[in-house]
Amino acid sequence: MEKGDPKPTVTESFPMSGGDGAHSYARNSSLQRGGLFNALNKSREAILANLDLRNPNFDRNNNIVRIADFGCSVGPNTFDAVKHIIDTVKLRFRQEDDVDDDLQDLEFHVFFNDQSNNDFNTLFKTLPKNENCFAAGVPGSFYGRVFPRNSLHIGHTSYTLHWLSRVPGENIGKQNSPAHKEQFEKDIENFLEARSEELVPGGLMIVLGLCISDGVPFAQTGKGIVMEIFLGCLIDIAKAGIISEEKAKTFSFPKYFPHFSEVKEAMERNRRFSVEMMEEIKHAYEDVDVGHELVVSVYRGLYHGVLVEHFGESSVDVLFDRFAEELTKCPLDDIKKTASDREYVIVLRRNLV
Ligand code: SAH
Q: At what angle do helices 313-327 and 222-239 cross, to 10 degrees?
């Protein structure tokens, strides 16, 4: 390790549900997919405005653009994100007469990063064919270094940074506690530090994620309300003797949902990137009918791994049945009307010095 490099971070790891079965992330990530399209349409202009093709770090002799998606999961969302970036880079080449000819030569090296226990097999089996695009998998936590220095031109990450590197031990059993917030801030710092080493000066980092409206307490957001119901179900099945009560009480998701201003502060605190674009946008659920079944399947896609790890495979089905039953008592349309669940989209540029 170089002096000054961030230390590798050992993180807890709870992959999304693999494969392509009914409860897989691949089949339960349509909400994230909707958000991705909203955000990418927003970020296109910022990418076009900030991608400097005359930057010597962009390796124009070889015309190879290196792109990485951090926390890619199993697809298909990561494929759409990468395709969008490739299309935008091509568009950028077309905008400049003198480089337009280089388009035929242009090749892309695309890296898919996630924790090593992510289902990379499903990812690569479903990878769409693209002639000028060469793919590779990169295992490891994005809270530490996963690429050599100055090796990437464009980085992307979506729906990832609310996953903490660990559950803050001293506040177990609570969600979105001050300890979770502290961990979130440390994690973002480590994330940006590592990316600043890996991206070339002038390189771009696109960050999309979940947040909540400023001033609204977590417990009053859609996520907070539904999570509370879920944690209540854990206690219910513990009382029925299916899981240990102690385990149910001390469980908390390794997650933190920041207010928009907290994300903004975390991004502005770092000195390695300039914030070229940062917007709070609507949550993808505003464009879809959110039924009870959708929420249950989203939870299954996201949390199956973490719950099995904590409570064992056999209790998880009982838990989800209970959750499905309890959730029907909750008027989801009323929650949606509060519209306090939000998303953010950010384009960062690695400083030249
Ligand atoms: N980007 C995809 C998947 C989001 S789900 C999409 O937009 O649909 C979140 C992903 O982040 C999961 O696959 C999870 O394994 C990954 N992840 C969470 N923490 C991580 C870490 N520390 N390092 C690498 N990947 C991580």
A: 120
pLDDT tens-digit readout, 236-279: 999 999 999 888 888 888 899 999 999 999 999 999 999 999 99
Cα 348–Cα 349–Cα 352 angle in degrees, nearest 5? 155
**Cα–ligand 1 centroid distance for 160 (angstroms):** 5
Q: Is the pTM of this model over 0.85?
A: yes
Residues 6+ apart with CB under 8 A from 213: 221, 259, 260, 280, 339, 340, 341, 342
Pick one of 1.20.120.530, 3.30.460.40, 2.40.50.40, 3.40.50.150 as the CATH number of 30-215+253-288+339-350.
3.40.50.150
CA of 301 to the centre of ligand 1 (A): 12
Is 24's C-beta closer than 6 angstroms to any atom of ligand 1? Answer: no
Q: Is 335 in the pocket of ligand 1 (CB under 6 A)?
A: no
